Amino acid sequence: MNLQRAVQTIKSKGYSWPCQLISRRCRSTAPEGPAGQSGEISLANTNIPLSQPMPGLAIPTYLKISKTADETKVTTLSNGIRVASQPKFGQFCTVGVCIDSGSRYEVAFPSGISHYLEKLAFNATSKFNSKDEILHKLEQYGGICDCQSTRDIFLYASSVDSRGLEETVDILGEVVLRPLFTQEEMDLSEQMIRFELEDLSMRPDPEPLLVEKIHAAAYRGNTLGLPKICPEENIGSISRKTLYTYLSAFHRPERMVVAGVGVDHDRLCETVQKHFVDNPPIWKSENIPSVITDSSTAQYTGGQSLEEKDMSSVSLGPTPMPELGHVVIGLESVGHQHPDFIPFCVLNMMMGGGGSFSAGGPGKGMYTRLYTHVLNRYHWMYSATAYNHAYSDSGIFCINASAHPSQLTDLVQVLVRELVALTGQISDSELKRAKTQLKSMLLMNLESRPVIFEDVARQVLAQGHRKQPQHFINLIDAVSREDLNRISANMLSSKLSLSAIGTLNRMPSYKDIELGLLDKEGLLPKRRFAGLFR
Q1: What are 484-525's pLDDT values in tens digits?
Q2: What does the domain layout of the chain look like in residue ranges?
Q3: What residues have CB less than 8 Å from 15, skipping those under 6 apart?
Q4: May I ask the CATH class of domain 304-532?
Q5: SS3 for 294-347, per residue?
Q6: Do 77-285 and 304-532 agree at the fold level?
Q7: What are phi and psi of 386, to 5 degrees?
Q8: Are 445 and 451 a contacting pair, CB within 8 Å?
Q9: Dihedral (C-alpha) 200, 205, 211, 216: value to the nearest 10 degrees?
Q10: pTM higher than the cut 0.90
Q11: CATH code, residues 77-285
């Protein structure tokens, strides 16, 4: 109705179509050229590409940038901390700290320290009395903050108005280097962890627990296999002194990167020098014993981690979910600094997958193999999704799938057959689609300022500099069918990692799955022998 009313109004003024009005407005507002010539813009000229400015219009000031504006600047300060900045037009900025820390380094500590630190982030420090005081300070500049820990990375970040850069870096320096860990905060964090564990045990989709189990199976007792989620028996046994000892060992300046997006590099370096270098960390005055920093390389072992669990009543309500058994089959891949990392990313996109109730077209990955070969063919398959967990020195490529416990034998058979099929025929269309989808996902994600921040921080932490998106686009374009066949064959030659949760009486044995992965057709032993007597 609004569009019709607008068209009628325009026509009542003597214009046959809105474009005439637009054309007239362009003629009336365009600047005059030399000798009094009108700077009229002809809308009929459709040959001007969007990458070129319109004739007669001044170039916007925010586009007058140097050729090196896209380059990420990196400076190493006197104590070893690295400062990285990425220019981006806009009123707001994202600034934060990326630390080479996480659960993989807890071998000499009780597991769960990273979980504790994540819950204790942005609380009282030597300068700020409480979390409310920190949040109130950030709110003055429209800011928000967050802390996330992974198995090998800690991220503290905040998005604020650029005018609040000094105050935000001050807060980050306090939170990272000078937390107080009051008894009240310790008690509250323990309650939060207990609630989180209880919630995980009651969820119908135990994906976080499956991720824990597949890592525990793949890296038994070392580095990436150490639990990220605090074990229940460790709640209450981690003290304030233990946390400071861990921080003194792993939150060192040489293991940190302070990154900013949409900030001036020199100004960022000045504030980091003031709040991260000139002001010492709190554990310097706490008489904390020195600890040798763990530098162990991840050792992929393979193995299994199964949990027999009745999941028939985990989903309550008027429309409960069906009882499901959840299985993850994993094989060794590569780390994110390995030359085969990009081919593994393409392979992950080609496999794709999701839930059986997804709707949409190619943009949602409905043409990936786990949809076309699995979810669209087997009505009893509830979900099937491929994941590629990549770290600095190792990785796991796995498929997470769910079905009714009575179908677990068939489920495993289907997954094994799809993994073995990766060494076979790959069509040009599915390879091109996977590469296009990966490039699209990369570039669209990098439209977000917080994602740019994490990309800058992680790359500088891992390799000392940031490679531009075009570098990865070129690597994606260079991936061939032979590359995918080669990395798939290498993957299948590695030791099997297996995890599962649910009623597992119909689960094939670890040995049978191993033999199935070695079979040219991907058949489990019982299925292979049964076929001989048909």
Answers
A1: 999 999 999 999 999 999 999 999 999 999 999 999 999 999
A2: 1-25, 77-285, 304-532
A3: 21, 24
A4: alpha beta
A5: CCCCCCCCCEEEEEECCCCCCCCCCCCCCCCEEEEEEEECCCCCCCCHHHHHHH
A6: yes
A7: -95, 140
A8: yes
A9: 70
A10: no
A11: 3.30.830.10
